[in-house]
Amino acid sequence: MKLAVISDVHSNLMALNLAVEDLKLENVDKVCFLGDYITDGPNDDQVLSVVRSISDYTVLGNREKYILDFSSLRKDYNNYKTIYTTFNSLNDESLKYIRSLKKYCIFRVGNYNILMIHGNSYYNESDDIEKIFDKIIDDFDFDICLFGHTHRYLYKKYKNKYFINPGSIGQACDNPSYKYCILEITDKVEVTLKEFEIKDTFDKLVNGYKKTKYYKDNYVWTNLVLYVIRDGIDYNSLFIEEFNERIKNMGDLNADDFNKIWDMTFDIFKEKYNLESL
Q1: Three-state DSSP class for 27?
Q2: Is the torsion defined by CA of 47, 23, 14, 34 positive or negative?
Q3: How far apart are alpha carbons 142 and 139 in whole angstroms?
Q4: What torsion do the CA atoms of 39, 41, 42, 47 make, to the nearest 10 degrees?
Q5: Which residue of 30, 125, 162, 196 could cross-link 56, Cys pair, CB 3.0 to 4.6 Å?
Q6: How far apart (Å, rounded) are the C-alpha atoms in residues 228 and 232?
């Protein structure tokens, strides 16, 4: 059995289409998606349409959970506008599909029970990876765990179980490439990492994003996303750390003050990391 394992599209339709075209050459038997299909870009409905059309197994990501838990209370704050914009862009078919997604999936291939989770509820940056694996082992009966969320490729055998993270097809944080995995199961387990160059299509991606409402409404966040894609560095998390440090003693801020500090932090952040305007 040959499985394609794809995670963390984050609305990057261009990257997803690269994987879809590559799958035609791989002749896979099943396609597994590990969550976070949407947000961070302008192509949510199109991405979900592709996922629906080619997937055999899917699970809920934390970004889809944000849509299920959507509230308009903080819609004017820049750190929530990304979710607000996405929520309002989704058509009824996409919303229905998101509501149908489950938190995990277990299926069997040969002698192996395969667990699919997004992984956000287990991931804690203060924990080492084996502690995270132990928590998953405590909760599920499986031989192979497929998980995403970190945007970093990982293939590790631990306590006689296989843990596989295909990395992110849409927004990698380990090095600048679009990634997914081929998992082949016979009498043994074999994993092949598939990667695609960023540089060949990056200018086209930037120009496409700049023309969208999503980019205009979420200028800072979308630029950070594009920097991540280009460089393979988790600028979003680094930016949030700096922003939170800046506001930690300021109490409850109204949206205008919050957004001014957000934009100011971005200007400082760009200079600190030598990030030129796209």
Answers
A1: coil
A2: positive
A3: 10
A4: -70
A5: 30
A6: 5
**What's the confidence (pLDDT) of residue 262?**
98
Q: Are 46 and 18 a contacting pair, CB within 8 Å?
A: no
> CB atoms < 10 A from the CB of 14, how many?
18
Distance between CA atoms of 168 and 149, rounded to whole angstroms? 8
Condensed to tens digits (0 to 9), the pLDDT of residues 150-167 reads 999 999 999 999 999 999
Amino acid type, 79: N
Distance CA 45, CA 247 (A): 34
Q: Tell me the two tokens of residue 170.
A: 């849409």
pLDDT at 125: 65
Could you give the CA distance from residue 154 to residue 4 in angstroms, rounded to a whole number? 15
* Residue 183 and residue 112 in contact, taking contact as beta carbons nearer than 8 Å: no
Q: Within a 13 Å sphere around the CA of 164, how many CA atoms are in the beta-carbon half?
A: 29
Q: Which residues pair with 189 in a beta bridge?
A: 185
pTM confidence score: 0.96
Nearest to 40 by CA among 58, 22, 62, 57: 62
Contact of 86 with 38, CB cutoff 8 Å? yes
Beta bridge partners of 196: 178
* Each residue's pLDDT tens digit, 8-50: 999 999 999 999 999 999 999 999 999 999 999 999 999 999 9
pLDDT band at 127 (very low <50, low <70, confident <90, very high): confident
Reported residue count of the chain is 278
